[in-house]
């Protein structure tokens, strides 16, 4: 999957994404980092094909993503957003069943056993009949992850998946994502706020600022005080913590 | 699961017993043995009364109740609002207005009333459904109530103050109007059961549905068309009967949970039972005259609606 000279913006206003060219490494974990408003979520939407570039193309396996039907796209790319909203009570299995929609005719009733393997993957097989609202935030996020996996995607996109979770749940979710990436060769694309989490989790990072790609590379290539200070417009230092490795801190009082 | 099954059994028994009772009660009371004798051919006068007057009315009330309850449940899913119902949103009163105007200016044609009520309902939805009202539940209800009052006032204006809906209702309903209600109702209710999974899908935000490849707008329009079809058919046959579409689905949720694939069939049965009960009470309570089902429903429905809003049913659905 790659972006070729992609621009995106509303007519008459400044571009949100400018001249963006980059390739998503297949089978790896990619994190997009940058300030709020740098265009991270917009970039994710462009990659998903839910918005179209003003110019340039987004291609998946050499084919423009815009050429794919919604259903075909849904069978390739799945999204877990930072916060989910439901308008009514839903049970866990009902939520996961929505991930199976691309594989059924529109009026079909999706059988329960079809979603069990995905609930098992996220370790929620026993919660199948529970109402979603009765689960903790971390468990709910795992339900949405199961729904995304039920799409059997090649690409799993996560938009700030850990924002509303405490550090324990953040750790568990990230460990699960790493496991999925390793076991199922799933290509993972995440937007993350926490630079250290992104550095620790990812095979590759895209550092972006004001809609432009500043640097694409491995964590080692991104671990540059000057580069990060420029991108976040803050004095940033990299310290080394024993038994952990390099750790990014910002130095404002 | 057990609660759900018991709820189905109870409503089926209640519906059966109420139907028997409705055959027995009226200006003239018939006992079960009299009905049995009539059925055996021994009491032709009784059989004639039951077949000509009571049975069509019972069938019409049951079908109309089922249709109104499902129309209410589906509009609650489409508008993501537990108070959404065709009768308080002005859909049925628009239907009545169009039937009245059409009846005045157009020559009679087949399914005239149904078609005119359908067009009226579509016009009401076109005025009602937009981005603003879909996002803000209070706005939807306020705009709906205003539309409803406007259509009702226009209807009264055209009839010079005579309440036109009193000429409709179940009183004096004949087999010919029951036939068309039965056919239209059967088609509509089968469509409801087929489209029930869509009502569940709409519990998710549009963005999420698009991400799984679901044509959200087509789905929503399809369901709205079904709501208009169901309520227009009932309006054409018996006029507006308020509140069934709010009361029944909300009580159904209490008994059978939140899955529309069980809410909808349960609402059909409960709606059939409620309207049959109301109509039967209306038939016997002020003999030799009668109270219309619409009047009784308005009396019960108002307090129920207030209770629902005050107990938080209105805020039970997150919107944003």
UniProtKB/TrEMBL annotation, chain A:
Main localisation: membrane
Q: Mind telling me which residue stretches traverse the membrane in this protein?
A: none
One cellular component term (GO) for this entry is: plasma membrane
Topological relation to the membrane, as annotated:
Peripheral membrane protein
Which CDD domains does the entry mention? Answer: ABC_Iron-Siderophores_B12_Hemin
- Entry keywords, A to Z: ATP-binding, Cell membrane, Ion transport, Iron, Iron transport, Membrane, Nucleotide-binding, Transport
Q: Which GO terms describe its molecular function?
A: ATP binding; ATP hydrolysis activity
GO terms, biological process: iron ion transport
Gene3D superfamilies given for it? P-loop containing nucleotide triphosphate hydrolases
* InterPro entries in the record: AAA+_ATPase (IPR003593), ABC_transporter-like_ATP-bd (IPR003439), ABC_transporter-like_CS (IPR017871), P-loop_NTPase (IPR027417), Siderophore_ABC-ATPase (IPR051535)
**Subcellular location(s) per record:** Cell membrane
User: What would be one Pfam family of this protein?
Assistant: ABC_tran
Occurrences of domain ABC transporter (ranges): 1-235
* The UniProt record lists the keyword Zinc-finger: no
The protein's matches in PANTHER family, at most eight in alphabetical order, are given as: FERRICHROME TRANSPORT ATP-BINDING PROTEIN FHUC, IRON(3+)-HYDROXAMATE IMPORT ATP-BINDING PROTEIN FHUC
What name is this protein filed under?
Answer: Iron ABC transporter ATP-binding protein
Q: What is the lineage of its organism?
A: Bacteria, Bacillati, Bacillota, Bacilli, Lactobacillales
> What gene does this protein come from?
fepC_1
Automatic annotation (TrEMBL), chain B:
Could you list the residue ranges forming a coiled coil in this record? none
GO BP terms, alphabetized:
siderophore-iron import into cell
Q: Name one GO molecular function term.
A: transmembrane transporter activity
InterPro entries in UniProt? ABC_BtuC-like, ABC_transptr_permease_BtuC
A GO cellular component term found in this entry reads: plasma membrane
Q: Which residue ranges does UniProt annotate as crossing the membrane? A: 7-30, 58-75, 87-109, 115-131, 138-158, 178-199, 211-230, 236-256, 263-285, 291-309
Q: Which Pfam families match?
A: FecCD
Cell compartments where the protein resides: Cell membrane
Q: How does it sit in the membrane?
A: Multi-pass membrane protein
Assigned keywords, A-Z: Cell membrane, Iron, Membrane, Transmembrane, Transmembrane helix, Transport
Give the UniProt family note.
Belongs to the binding-protein-dependent transport system permease family. FecCD subfamily.
Q: Its biological function? A: Part of the binding-protein-dependent transport system for heme-iron. Responsible for the translocation of the substrate across the membrane.
Q: What is this protein called?
A: Probable heme-iron transport system permease protein IsdF
